[in-house]
Amino acid sequence: MNPAIQGLVTIIVGVGGCIAYFYFSNQILDKVIFPATGKHAGRNISRANMVRPWLFLAPAIFALGLYLAYPVVETLRLSLTDRDLGGAFVGLANYQQMMDEPKFWEALRNNFLWLLVVPAFATAFGLLAAQLTDRLSWGNIAKSLIFMPMAISFVGAAVIFRLIYVARPEDQAQIGVLNAVWLQFQGGGGSFIFLKILPAIILVCFAALSAYVVYLVIKPYLQGYKRGGLLAHLGRVIIAVGGLYLAFLALRSTLTLFGAELPYGEPQQWLTIPFYNNFFLMVVLIWIQTGFAMVILSAALRGIPEETVEAAIVDGANPFEVFFQIKVPQIMGTIVVVWTTITLTVLKVFDIVFAMTNGQWETQVLANYMFDKLFRANDWGVGSASAIVIMLLVSPILIWNVYNARKEMR
Amino acid sequence: MAAIAGTKSGLVWTVQLSTIALVLLWLFPTVGLLVSSFRTVDQINSSGWWGALTTAEQNEVIRAADPDDNRVADGDMFVVSGNLFDGGTNKTITVWGTSSRAIDAFVPGDVADLGDGETVTVQPNGDYEWRGDDDQISGRGQRIFVTTQSPPEFTLDNYNTVLTGGYSDGGMTQAFFNTLTVTIPATIIPIVIAAFAAYALAWMDFPGRAVLIALVVALLVVPLQLALIPLLRLHLGIGIGKGYLGVWLAHTGFGLPLAIYLLRNYMVGLPKDIIENAKVDGATDFQIFTKIILPLSFPALASFAIFQFLWTWNDLLVAKVFLIDATGETTVMTNQIVELLGTRGGNWEILATAAFVSIAVPLVVFFTMQKYLVRGLLAGSVK
Q1: Binary contact (B197, A387; C-beta < 8 A)
Q2: φ and ψ of A114, to 5 deg
Q3: Interface-testing mutation among B8, B37, B173, B221, with chain A (most A C-beta atoms within 10 A)
Q4: What burial letters (b/e) apply to B240-256, b meaning 16+ CB within 10 Å?
Q5: Which of B27, B129, B310, B356 could pair with B81 in a Cys bridge, judged by C-beta atoms 3.0 to 4.6 Å apart?
Q6: What residues of A are in contact with residue B55 (Cβ under 8 Å)?
Q7: Distance of CA B197 to the CA centre of its chain
Q8: By C-alpha distance, which of B168, B164, B178 is closest to B344?
Q9: How far apart are alpha carbons B201 and B216 in whole angstroms?
Q10: Closest CA to B278 of B288, B267, B290
């Protein structure tokens, strides 16, 4: 059967079936099982109303259970069994095998790198774009252009960025922007300013910013602060440690930068330079996610009461103080939401790595590692074990979201 | 006061310029792909896409035709003549040479003396004549080093190749229709199921409602990586195998949490009076849902539809696991592009065009329905 016709039939059967199910199940409930007539009419109506929600929910519960809840349990079970032994229980052997593989540790390290860098930069750029376009007459056009990459598939974005990173031999014209720009630097004074001083300034600023965030987070403790739940304390400690690590990384890179002997005049295969190629991949996701952060943060900025900003201006605050001390604290909740949402996307990132390097040259990430185990090595045990690792990394956010949703409903 | 006004306008200018810079930076990559998809192979290889509107200069080494097959006698001399570019091109030669040490020794029309009466001459359009005695005009063709200039040139040929070509030439037609076949049922079916569930969670009272809502919020973030192995086993076990039905079901399952969450949040905000009045007038829940709730929820339905459409259209992982079998007949566009990256990674004219074909539809949807997309994003991020 032609797939198009099959698709059409599926839509009709699927949608028609759903509607028919809802209609007839309600009819049967009201007319046959608990008819609203006779001597038990009142009791029957209330009984029917007790059953009805479950009729409405049944298909959804079935689909959610089968496609999301059951796999969590089943993956956990599979991660403890071995396919070659006919699914025998092998305890933690798969995890042991995974831990012994350097590729797994590489994937884990890279995932943490992605977790630190992508949400930070996407949120920062999004905040910048939201603030810049806030009062602009053509702000909406600017916003939709920055937002546009959201519609582009990760694979499409991978092609777009491979065109940017492409390298040709030295004697041919460079068709990748990055190499064309790179070859402009020949090691003179200009190169020194742009490739040493400027990045150093950016790195030091970044380190300072991280340190400032750490300071803000631990400030209450320095003043003898005791309140807050365990979760809040834990969050603060994690942010503080992460921030310090970032600041340390930035300062260390500044030193390496000045010591490094840059290969001027040679076209570079950017995606094959170990460690740094991770950042070239992250750029793709930052490019896509910035629009998302901008849209949400822009709405949050609009929601800030005008009086607070006006009061600050009357008190003589400059635009930067207004932004950092009045606006940002008021939208902190939204920033956290944006940050966690992008974190979730990062944990599941697969297509970008798969299409650009397929984990070669030390760019492996967990989701791609899992795919590799699953379909190339055909090792379902280790594949499931790595999926469970992703689940473990996601679960703090899961708990946090459920906690918040329940709090909101009360 | 004047000073304050001065800094104000300075700030306004900074904001304007930074915004322009940011927008250009964000557009630059996509524009590169778009421009490249309209350039010829020669043009792509001779200059970066940002030089598409200027004349490109390129150095090439071309051999004259094989003397043993092509030489013609002219008195006691032999002549090989022809066109360096085999005719079809609009390049012009600016300078040329016969040795790699002096590639710019001659201008077109000059006669290069290679010694002992052997000569070569090259015209601006690439016509050449290579003349010498029996011994000289033999073996391999004379090497000619040319520096060419090609004026800007745009073409629709790439789209022609990609849209009409077969699977192995990078043809996208089959993949395009496959993607469409995956996308449409996978967008519509979860909406229907989720709408009923969302109504129950928003407006019906029953024990366990709060737990169910919490469960939906939890499932919202479960990585679908977890579902791959068990569900593939399940599909293979119950005979669905790899195919459209499997991928539709999988997308339906993975899309449901967001659908229920978005729709419930929207339906909860609908005015209570309408629903209670309808109940007083004797309407059943089914009637309230179809006659009142569904029409009023159109914005939320549209939001989710766009999300799910973009997600299923752009998806690679689910299609690779649940749909694409060994024959590759059911390949989708994202997968086709990944294969092209592997097999024809250097053919940028094919790659850029194929990629642009695949992102064209989402871009159209994005720009026409942006309002709903933004609304959905704002409602969908857990607060």
Answers
A1: no
A2: -60, -45
A3: B221
A4: bebbbbbbbbbbbbbbb
A5: B129
A6: none
A7: 36
A8: B168
A9: 10
A10: B288
SS3 content of chain B, % helix, strand, coil (to 5): 60, 15, 25
Q: How far is CA A75 from CA A61, A90, A150, B232, B255, in A?
A: 20, 14, 31, 11, 20
Distances (CA, A) of A40 to A31, A33, A50, A55, B380: 13, 12, 15, 22, 44
- Round to the nearest angstrom and report the end-to-end CA distance of chain B: 43
Largest CA distance in chain B: 112
Measured CA distances, B239 to A209, B229, B242, B324 (Å): 56, 15, 9, 16
- Say which residues have a Cβ less than 8 Å from residue A337's Cβ, sequence separation at least 6: A296, B381, B382, B383
Question: Cα dihedral sign for B17, B22, B25, B27?
Answer: negative
C-beta atoms surrounding A5 within 10 Å: 10
- A111 is written with which tokens? 């995932």
Q: Using an 8 Å Cβ cutoff, are A284 and A356 in contact?
A: yes
Task: Give the residue carrying structure tokens 């200059």.
Answer: B47
CA distance B41 to B37: 10
User: What's phi and psi for B147, nearest 5 deg?
Assistant: -110, 120
Contact criterion met (CB below 8 Å) for A329 and A265: no
Q: Give, in order, the Cα–Cα distances in Å from A289 to each of A65, A120, A149, A154, A337.
A: 30, 11, 8, 11, 13
CA–CA gap between residue A197 and residue A205 (Å, rounded): 12
Nearest to B286 by CA among A331, A286, A23: A23
B14 with A121: CB under 8 angstroms? no
Q: Please compute the mean of the pLDDT values over residues A158-183 and round it to a whole number.
A: 83
Q: What is the pLDDT of residue B168?
A: 61
pLDDT band for A285, please (50, 70, 90 cuts). Answer: very high
Q: What is the DSSP string of A208-234?
A: HHHHHHHHHHHHHHHTT---S-HHHHH
Q: Quote the minimal CA–CA distance from A160 to chain B in Å.
A: 6
Query: Most B CBs within 10 Å: which of A56, A162, A349, as the mutation test of the B interface?
Result: A56
Q: What is the dihedral of CA A378, A382, A387, A389, to 10 degrees?
A: -160
A161-194: buried (b, 16+ CB within 10 Å) or exposed (e) per residue? bbbbbbbbeeeebbbbbbbbebeeeeeeeeeeee
Measured CA to CA, the distance from residue B195 to residue B255 in angstroms comes to: 12
Question: Among B253, B369, B262, B181, which residue's Cα sits nearest to residue A66?
Answer: B253
User: Which of A22, A133, A155 is the closest to B316 by Cβ?
Assistant: A155
DSSP string, A321-381: HIIIIIIHHHTHHHHHHHHHHHHHHHHT--HHHHHHTTTTTTT--HHHHHHHHHHTS--HH
pLDDT per residue rounded down to tens, chain B (383 residues): 334 444 567 778 888 888 899 899 998 888 888 888 888 777 777 777 787 777 777 777 788 777 777 778 877 788 888 887 776 667 778 888 887 777 777 888 778 877 777 888 888 777 888 888 877 777 777 788 888 777 777 778 778 777 777 656 656 777 888 888 888 888 888 888 898 888 888 888 888 888 888 888 888 888 888 888 888 888 888 877 787 888 888 898 888 998 898 888 888 888 888 888 888 888 877 888 888 888 888 888 888 888 899 889 988 888 888 888 777 777 888 888 888 887 776 788 888 888 888 888 999 988 888 888 888 877 766 54
CB contact (8 A) between residue A333 and residue B383: yes
- Say which residues have a Cβ less than 8 Å from residue B87's Cβ, sequence separation at least 6: none
The amino acid at residue B238 is I
The single residue listed with the structure tokens 């992703």 is A390
DSSP string for B192-239: HHHHHHHHHHHH---TTHHHHHHHHHHHTT--THHHHHHHHHHHHHHT
* Residue recorded with tokens 């598409």: B52
A358: alpha, beta or left? (left if phi > 0; alpha if psi -120 to 50): left
Do the chains contact at A63 and B253, CB–CB below 8 Å?
Answer: yes
